[in-house]
Write a sequence for this structure.
C-alpha cells in the first residue's frame, strides 16, 4: 500500500526561505538548501518549493537554489509559483524538479495544463487550488488568495484532472493559518469528484490534525504544511511515528 | 565509470547527481563507443514505451546495448528503462523490448482494484523474494518511490522484489548481470542511494 506523504512547503524569495524560520540547531536558518537537507534527514517524503520572487534577478536566484537542492536531496521535488507557460515548466524541470504546480497560470491560460501534460506527462502536472467558501459555495481564488475568480472549485478540479493534472493540492483559505485542523469538508468534496492524488493544505496546527485527516479521509494522499514545520511546532519524525502507531501507512 | 544512456527520454539530472553524490564516476552519453568503454550501463527513461524504443532504434543503440548486456556488462534499467528490458510491452499496442529479461509489460489498470489510482505515484515498500547483489544494503519493507502506469509480469524467474499495489507489482528484477528497478532509486532517498551504490559494486 502506498504510504501517506508528509510534505513541507518552502516559500522562497530572493534566495531565502520566507515566513520566518526559527530553527534551533540549523546554522544558516533561512538557507533553503540547509532547510531542505534538514527536512530530508527528518523523513519528509517530498518537498514543495514556491517561488514568490517578483524580479527576474530573484528568479535566477531561485533556479540556482533548485539546482543546489536537487544536487543533494534525492526525494521528489515539486516547484510552483509564477508558472504561466510551458517554457516555465521546462525551466524548472531542467533544474531538477519532478513535478510542477500551476495555480493562477492555469486560470489565465486555460490550455496550460493540457499542453504541459501532453509534453511532460500527467504525473508531472500538479493543480494547486486556493479555495474559499463564498455564499456557501467553494470558490477558486487567484493571485495568492487575493482575487475571487468566481470559478466553482468542484468544476475547476474536474476540468483540471480532465485536462491532465496528475495531482491536486487543495489549499483552503478558510482554514489556512487558523491551525484548527485541515478543511475536511472541502477535501472530502474534492476527493469525491477526482481520481488523482489529493494533497491537503491549510490548517494543520498539531500532530492530531494529521491523524484526523488521514483517519477521516483515507482518500487523501498527503498532508502539506509550512510554518508548523519551520517553527518546529511539529517534528516530522515524531509526526510519522505517531501516524504509524495509529495504523496509517507511512514511510518511517 | 558508469554510462548513463542519453537517448532523449527524461531528465537525467537527478540520476547523474545521485551518482556524483555517492562519489561514483558516470557519464551521460549516447555515443556507443563511450558506452562500450564504461564498466557498467544504466538505461533510464520516463514516458511511453514505444517512443523510447523508437528512439533507441533510431539512434542505433538497441542492438549494441543488447550485445553488451549479453556479454555480461552490468546493466541497470530504471523505470521505463526496466520495462524496456522485457520481451514486449502492451502500452498502446504491442512493442518489442530488448528481451534481456523474460516477461511482458501490461497496464496496471484492470489488474488492480478500481479504487486504486493510476499511475501508482508515491512511496511503497519492497517485499524481497530473493537475494540479489543490488539489494545487499536494503531491508525488507524499505520504501522506494514509484511513478508508473504499466508494470512487468510473468517474470517469476527473474523477480527479486515486488511491491503491493492491489496486486504484486514487479519492483526489482535480475537476470544474471542485467538488473531493473520499476521505481526511481535517484528519488528514493537513502534506500535509493544504497541501491545505486550496490549496483556500482556489482562485480563484472
Amino acid at each position: 500500500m502506498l504510504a501517506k506523504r508528509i510534505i513541507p512547503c518552502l516559500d522562497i524569495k530572493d534566495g531565502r526561505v520566507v515566513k520566518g524560520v526559527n530553527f534551533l540547531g540549523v546554522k544558516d536558518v533561512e538557507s533553503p538548501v540547509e532547510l531542505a537537507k534538514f527536512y530530508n534527514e527528518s523523513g519528509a517524503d517530498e518537498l514543495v518549493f514556491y517561488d514568490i520572487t517578483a524580479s527576474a534577478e530573484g528568479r535566477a536566484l531561485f533556479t540556482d537554489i533548485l539546482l543546489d537542492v536537487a544536487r543533494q536531496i534525492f526525494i521528489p521535488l515539486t516547484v510552483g509559483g509564477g508558472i504561466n507557460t510551458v517554457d516555465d515548466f521546462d525551466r524548472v524541470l531542467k533544474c531538477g524538479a519532478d513535478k510542477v504546480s500551476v495555480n493562477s497560470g492555469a486560470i489565465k491560460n486555460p490550455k496550460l495544463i493540457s499542453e504541459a501534460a501532453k509534453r511532460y506527462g500527467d504525473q508531472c502536472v500538479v493543480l494547486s487550488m486556493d479555495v474559499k467558501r463564498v455564499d456557501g459555495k467553494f470558490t477558486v481564488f487567484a493571485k495568492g488568495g487575493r482575487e475571487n475568480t468566481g470559478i466553482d472549485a468542484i468544476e475547476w478540479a474536474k476540468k483540471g484532472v480532465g485536462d491532465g493534472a496528475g495531482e491536486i493540492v487543495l489549499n483552503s483559505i478558510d482554514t489556512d493559518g487558523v491551525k484548527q485542523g485541515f478543511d475536511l469538508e472541502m477535501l472530502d468534496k474534492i476527493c469525491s469528484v477526482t481520481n488523482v492524488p489529493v494533497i491537503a493544505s491549510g490548517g494543520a496546527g498539531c500532530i492530531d490534525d494529521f491523524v484526523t485527516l488521514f483517519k477521516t479521509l483515507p482518500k487523501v494522499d498527503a498532508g502539506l504544511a509550512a510554518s508548523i514545520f519551520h517553527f518546529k511546532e511539529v517534528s516530522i519524525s515524531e509526526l510519522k511515528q505517531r501516524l504509524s502507531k495509529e495504523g496509517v501507512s507511512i514511510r518511517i | 565509470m558508469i554510462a548513463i544512456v542519453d537517448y532523449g527520454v527524461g531528465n537525467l539530472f537527478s540520476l547523474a547527481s545521485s551518482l556524483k553524490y555517492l562519489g561514483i564516476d558516470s557519464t551521460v552519453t549516447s555515443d556507443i563507443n563511450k558506452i562500450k568503454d564504461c564498466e557498467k550501463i544504466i538505461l533510464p527513461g520516463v514516458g511511453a514505451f514505444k517512443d523510447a524504443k523508437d528512439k533507441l532504434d533510431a539512434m542505433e543503440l538497441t542492438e549494441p546495448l543488447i550485445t553488451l548486456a549479453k556479454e555480461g556488462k552490468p546493466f541497470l534499467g530504471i523505470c521505463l528503462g526496466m520495462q524496456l528490458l522485457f520481451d514486449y510491452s502492451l502500452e498502446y499496442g504491442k512493442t518489442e523490448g530488448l528481451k534481456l529479461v523474460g516477461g511482458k509489460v501490461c497496464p496496471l489498470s484492470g489488474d488492480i482494484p478500481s479504487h486504486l489510482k493510476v499511475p501508482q505515484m508515491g512511496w511503497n515498500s519492497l517485499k524481497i523474494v530473493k537475494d540479489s547483489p543490488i539489494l545487499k544494503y536494503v531491508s525488507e519493507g524499505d520504501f522506494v518511490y514509484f511513478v508508473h502506469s504499466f508494470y512487468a509480469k510473468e517474470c517469476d524467474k527473474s523477480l527479486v522484489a515486488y511491491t503491493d499495489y492491489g496486486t504484486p507489482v514487479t519492483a526489482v528484477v535480475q537476470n544474471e548481470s542485467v538488473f531493473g528497478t520499476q521505481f526511481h532509486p535517484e528519488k528514493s532517498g537513502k534506500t535509493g542511494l544504497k541501491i545505486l551504490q550496490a549496483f556500482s559494486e556489482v562485480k563484472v
Notes: The mean pLDDT of chain B is 95. Helices of chain B lie at 13-21, 32-37, 49-58, 62-70, 80-83, 189-200.
